[in-house]
Structure formats: C-alpha cells, structure tokens
Amino acid sequence: MADLGEYRRRRDAARTPEPVPESSAVDSHGGQSFVIQEHHATALHWDFRLERDGVLVSWAVPKGLPTDTRKNRLAVQTEDHPLEYATFEGTIGAGQYGGGTVTIWDHGTYELEKWTEREVKFVLAGQRVQGRFVLFRTKGKQWMMHRMDAPSTPDWQPLPGSVAPMLATPGELPEDSDAWAFEMKWDGVRALARIEGGRISLTSRNDHDLTVSYPELRALGETVGSTQLLLDGEITSFDGAGRPSFARLQKRMHVSSAVQARELAAAEPVVYLVFDVLHHDGRSLIGEPYSARRALLDELGLNGPTWQTPPAFDGSGAAAFGVSQAQGLEGVVAKRRGATYQPGRRSADWIKVKNIRAQEVVIGGWRPGAGRREGSIGSLLVGLPTADGLAYAGKVGTGFTDEALDELGRQLKRLGRTTSPFSQSPGAGVPRGEAKDVHWVTPKIVGEVAFTEWTRDGRLRHPAWRGLRPDKRPDQVLREG
Length: 481
Ligand code: MN
Prior knowledge:
eight-stranded antiparallel barrel, binds manganese (II) ion
C-alpha cells in the first residue's frame, strides 16, 4: 500500500530542502515515470524510484543499476517518496536524514510487466538507461536488481577483473620526437585502478590488492560516479618541497590495517598520478593507440585533492628530460604515439630514461652493525636473479633510516637460513672475504638502491638503500642499463 507516513516521520520540513507534502491523501494514478537520483551521502548510492499508486516506490542501489546481464546489483528498499521528489535536486544538510547532495542521474518512463510482493519486472525508457530489468526480493528490505537484456550500446564489454600493467624498457631518448610523447617518470608505486559503481579498487604490479592501504583514493571512485573506468598510474608521496619522495611513501606501503591506513592517509596523503585509461564505459581501449587513450584521459579531467592527470609533453624528448632534471624528478618515459597498450609486456614502445641510477635488488643476507648500529643491521648483501641463480651484486651499508632498519630487521629475521642463497657459479657468488659473519636469508625480499655505475665484474658501485619494493616479486627484478 502506498504510504508516505514513514517518509514524513523521517523528515523535518523546516530543516530539509526536500519536498514534504502536507496532505496524506494519495491519489491513485496511472503514471508510469521513473527517476534515478545520484546521492552522495555517507555512502554513495543511486536512488531508483518507480511511480506507482501515487507515490515513488524506492530502492537505494549502492553501485547503481547493473550495466550487463552478468552482474546483479544489491538494492535496498526504502520508504515510499512523494511524486514531488522526482524533480528534487539539492543538498541536504549534514546531520539530517540522507545528508549530502542529490542530483538527477536519469529519468523517463517505464513499461510494467509484473509487480508482486517479491518481484517487479519492467522496461525502462530513460535518457541514459534503456532496457529490461527485474528486481527480486531476497530477504526483508533486500532486493537484487538484474538486467535482463544486453546493454543498448553495441559491443558493450564488461570491465575486466584485472590487467597486468605494460612495462617500459630502459633506454635512450628517441630521436624522432613527432612519433613519441614524453611523460615525467614518477618515483612511486605502480597501481591500476578499477572503478565501477562509484567504487575504486587498486591493484599493484604483482597483483596485490592495495585498496585498503590508500583510503584517500576512495573519493576518486565516488567522483566519477557511474562512469566505468580502468586507469593506470603511479601512487606517489610528495615531500614538503613538492617533490616525489619514495622514502615518504615507504611508510604507506606496508600498511594493511584499515584504521592505521586512515590515520596515515589523513596525516600524509598520497597522490595518484593517472597516465593511462584502459577501459571506459563498456569499451576496452587496450587495442587503441596511445594518442587516442591519452586524448580520452585528458577529456576525463581527473584532477582532485589526491589524484591528478599530469600532462604529456609534445615537444622534444630533450626538452622534457630537461624539465624532469630541473624539477628533481626521476626521469621521463617516452611513449610511442601509435602503440597499443601491451598488458604485462616490457615493451620497446615505452622507454624509460632516468636521471638517477636506481636498481632493484633481491636481499640474500645481512651483516650485523657495529658502533651506533650494534645489534641491528649493518649492511645487506644483495643480488640479481639470473638463469644460474642469484648473482651477487654487492653490499649496501648506507642510506637507511631507523624505520627502514626496523622494518628490514622484522622481515629478514623470519627468512633466516644456514646456507648462502647466492649462485655458486664462478664470479657470481659472494667472495670469501665478504661472506664472513653473514646471516643468510631466503631471497624473497626486493628493495631498491641508488648507485653510480656497474663495475666490470657486475657489482654496484656506491650503492645506497632507497627502500623496500613489496610491489615487486624477486623474479621480476631486472638489471637496468
Ligand atoms: Mn538516498
């Protein structure tokens, strides 16, 4: 039965901009209109309302209407709303019932096929949504919404679950600048962002879910609303001088507690620097050239408090590289304008050129410290994976912060073993003089060092510790340049 009693009980007409009609008399009505309102309340949702017996029968749909037949969406029935509500847009004050902003996402008419206590079946004819849907009750106020026909957009492709990021090859600046675009290289952690129904999830290069660690990026999902996106970018932390700081990001990379992540996000928020778009509203862009993906990305205008779309440079690679040096950035990535996105591949269509020399390494052992570092780690023995096993690349004894030493101590203690994990091949193992007092560990941990050059026998000269790389697997480590 249509009833606006609950609607009125929940609202104070003097305090909300929403329509609160006086009369309780509800006329039976032949109207068949619907409205969908996007409601940025405590949690983003879409309010789906069907006109019936003189009221708007309503459901709150947390992720919006299903976009294809494969995935149903939860819909929670809410109180009937007055017909006047169908044109309501505005801001409900904080602290009021439903506090937040309401905008009309779509409206139109529907053709009813079935209406029972448990099932409502209808065809929507809106501006944005056309199609046949069914709502079926699962328990109490909980319903599920299912799309019964294929999306009206031809060749609609569902958002993929995950995609492995395309990787750049280390190299030199390309000569022919017309064929290439240049982007700054950001010193952070690579992440793919999947956004659907206003919800974001973040995945690292090695397919770990990072969503919990960076709660400040949830707002990006809510901002794009019902737009379906798969984005590629770099999570970066900026220091007081506005420069990317990998050291500052380290604190954020190991956090899996939601409470701790929220505290850190409030104190030292990161910025997600978006540089590619791989899927947009039912359309995969992986096979499109870089220039088309980049044009769409610029059109999307993703710029907010904790996300930005840094520009791509059109001029010469040398000019872009000059900018990266002047601003103290890590380097540039040259991207071939005509190239498709190649998931999981280290492609020659993306070339990274660095200002600083950094190398990922796998830790194979450590030596205790002396003096001030007595009882702690003095240096790390590191190597690179080869077909012959882990090849020794040198000893890193500098560049550590106290926090870094604590974290390394915690992680390495668990991995202790009695034998060297380094290759025993001639020239690849640890020289006898450097193997004294070493605590060997299973080679599972990846870190990054800065260094000046490679020696002729494959050692890092003047290596300094930059931080852990929990986003990389040991077998993904590759000698750069
Ligand atoms: Mn609502």
